[in-house]
Amino acid sequence: MELIDHMRQEQSEDSDGDLLSDDDFQDVSLRQPRAVESHHVRKPHGTAVTAQTQIPPAADASLRVLVDSRCISGGSEVVSRLRLRHGLQVHVCSLISSDFIVSKRMAVERQSESELAGVQNRKRLQDRMQRLQATFERVCLIIERDRAKPGETVRVFQRSRCYDGTLAALVKAGVRLLVSNGPDDTAALLAELAQVERRKGQAIGVPLEVKGHRQQALQFYLTLPHVSYVSALNMCHHFSSVSHMINSSVEELQASALMSRSRAAVCATAAILRS
User: How would you label 15-48 residue by residue, b for 16+ Cβ within 10 Å and e otherwise?
Assistant: First the structure.
């Protein structure tokens, strides 16, 4: 049995049910068009998550995805495929906390195998995952296989104890792992995750851009604890002003920001102190 299979079996035994379930990963199986090869990402009990290099455009063109502006330098191919091949509305902005947000509750990080294997990156990745889990109900990490540069010989990735230890720590922490062969697969996985979340009623349902005074309000909301970019957008469209938000009840904030009551209480207190 492969290491990731073993680690995911351990996670399924320890899971508290708050993270992406096995049934969710069963849903992340993309339609396979003719004459297109696919690869598989292992999941517990032998089921596989499949990502094709091409799939038909998403049936619902209103699906929305947020992409961190830092991804443009190394991930422009993913953004273009999300828009042109999968028909998603993509808004590039400064997310800070994650690479992608595919629903109200799910953030997705993207790392190459070599980045994940670097000892110097382990602590940084751990801190980043912890911050994401403090804000999002569900966190996924797409591990993208390294690509050879033009003129270079393709090298077989050598797994190390550090690499395997990092994977084990991520799974134990509740981070779901997906493996991609490159930008095509990464875009396909992101599109399918967004579709799965839509079927579960978690799709991003507000406009991805705000203007005027709402832009200033957005920046304020993003400074509050436990507030994701999607939560901040929802607050911008629900509250007429920052003062309106500060004077609202915890229950109203919880409903508008789509967060738990405990997180809404912390957020409300922080808003009052910073106003």
Answer: eeeebbeeebbebbbbeeeeeeebbebbbbeeee
Structure tokens, 275: 């106003």
- Residue 35 in tokens: 């004459």
d(CA 43, CA 26): 9
Bridge-partner residues for 50, per DSSP?
29, 40
207 DSSP 8-state letter: -
CB 233 within 8 A of CB 93: no
Tens digit of pLDDT for each residue in 61-104?
479 999 999 888 777 899 999 999 999 999 999 998 899 999 99
Q: Which of 14, 13, 49, 12 is nearest to 29 (CA)?
A: 49
How many other CB atoms are there within 10 angstroms of residue 197's CB atom?
22
Residue 112, Ramachandran bin (φ over 0: left; ψ between -120 and 50: alpha; else beta):
beta
Say if strands 138-144 and 176-180 run parallel, antiparallel, or are unpaired.
parallel
pLDDT for the residue numbered 97? 83
Task: Please check whether residue 187 is in contact with residue 57, taking contact to mean a CB–CB distance below 8 angstroms.
Answer: no
Given a contact cutoff of 8 angstroms between Cβ atoms, the answer to whether 88 and 94 are in contact is: no
